[in-house]
Amino acid sequence: MDRPSSNELTIRRDDVLRAAGPPRSRGRRARWLIVGVLAAASFWGGTVAYRRSQAPAPPSFISVPLARGNLTETVTAVGTLAPVDAVELGTEVTGRLTRVLVDVNDQVEEGQILAEIDPEQLSARVRETQAQLQTATANERSARTTLTEAEVKAERARALHEAGVASGDETDTANAALERARANVGVAAAQISVAQANLASARSMLARAVIRAPISGIVLARAVEPGQTVTAGFQTPILFTLARDLSELELEVEVDEADIGKVREGQTASFNVDAYPGRTFASKLLELHNLPKAGATIVTYSAVLAVDNRDRALRPGMTATAEVVTRQLEDVLLVDNAALRFEPPRPAGGRRGFLPIPGFGPGPMRPPGERDAARGGGDDDHVYVVDAAGSARQISVEVLATDGTRSAVAPAEPPKGRARPGRMNDVAQATEPPPAPPPFEAGAAVIIDVASGGRP
């Protein structure tokens, strides 16, 4: 194979150099580097803009101002109105009612006749016991006469025996007859006592055939009519129900075992009845019973409240809902109970940064329900307050009392010895203190809910 000559090699080298062009200068390399940096920055900016456009809008909150005022804590209980002194009047006598002299709502006086039972059988019983008493009295007189005769015979037999005329047997017989006569007198006296007791009982039953009012008051109920037969057997039949005075009533309510620790005798109370929807009646707790009443799921205790009913608006048997005042607080911070239940919305899963590179972008979100330790949360109650930037800030509070709608709260001091962690700088490894929370005072915007259009 023939080798190329030196002239041919020179011609080929010149062709290669012409095809490659002139050598690049240093200024041209700098321009290409600037173009690359600008292109990378444009890509980064576009990515950031896109991610921000896809991110959910921050939520808008519904808040109420923190108020300062007074709060009354109450315990609610349900019960029934009843007369202070009610008497169910019955009879111990069996017979037919001949007269009924009163009706419902009649005013009666103590001792007034209300009804009468046919006294025929009872009168016959009285006459019978009177005859028994007369017989016993006659027997007692006969026994005393026999005793006198036996005493004379015994004295004569003793005298004859001492004179040697009568034998000892005759004297013993006379003494025995004397003792029997004395015993007969005792038996006759006992029979008189029995007859007197029977007569007194018969007269008492006859007197009970007339039904009289044991107290002065009003007739609440009448359960009999003239001509009706009542039978006094094992259970006394109820004829009338009387109340001493309806100007004073009692309200017996059932207090739940969860609230019994707050209730005390002497506390003021109020109640409402369905008959007067817009009216509230004042009362006072008189008695608190210790005997529990076990229901299907709860245990209750009876409490008695005094009720002034001078206008006679209330009636026995009405169902009332009472509120017993257990605690009163003045000049305290008041917050709606909805604020104590509010939790800000959080994504269900974690949230990644803009790029999957360690150290860039925000970290993962905390799961729902977990309190933010950086905001001072713990096991205490807390509320969320809108700060100057429009964000929700958690503030720990102490609940003093509640009336079911609002609660009296006070700022809770952070536990001693517990650090409030901030964000950790990877380079300096130093704790960055969190921003100061907004002031918790009257007028502060306390969050109770999230606006419907602002949920993420």
Description:
The chain has 456 residues and is an alpha+beta fold. The protein folds into three domains: 62-67 and 335-454, no CATH class; 75-84 and 247-329, Beta Barrel (Elongation Factor Tu (Ef-tu), domain 3), CATH 2.40.30.170; 90-230. Helices cover 29% and strands 32% of the residues. It has five helices and 21 strands. The strands form five sheets. Strands 2-11-14-13-12-15 form a six-stranded antiparallel β-barrel. A hairpin with a 6-residue loop joins strand 19 and strand 20 (431-432). Helix 3 (120-163) runs antiparallel to helix 4. The longest helix is centred in the first third of the chain and has 44 residues, at 120-163. The radius of gyration is 53 Å and the shape is rod-shaped. Residues 348-378 and 415-430 have low confidence and may be disordered.
Overall shape: it is: rod-shaped
Mean pLDDT metric: 79
Number of helices: 5
- According to DSSP, the number of beta strands is 21
Q: Looking across the biggest beta sheet, what order are the strands in? A: 2-11-14-13-12-15
**Strand-residue fraction?**
25-35%
Element-level helix/strand string: HHEEEEEEHHEEEEEEEEEHEEEEEE
Q: Let me know the largest β-sheet.
A: 6 strands, antiparallel, barrel
- Structural category: alpha+beta
Proportion in helices:
25-40%
Terminal CA distance reads 82 Å
**How much is the radius of gyration in Å?**
53 Å
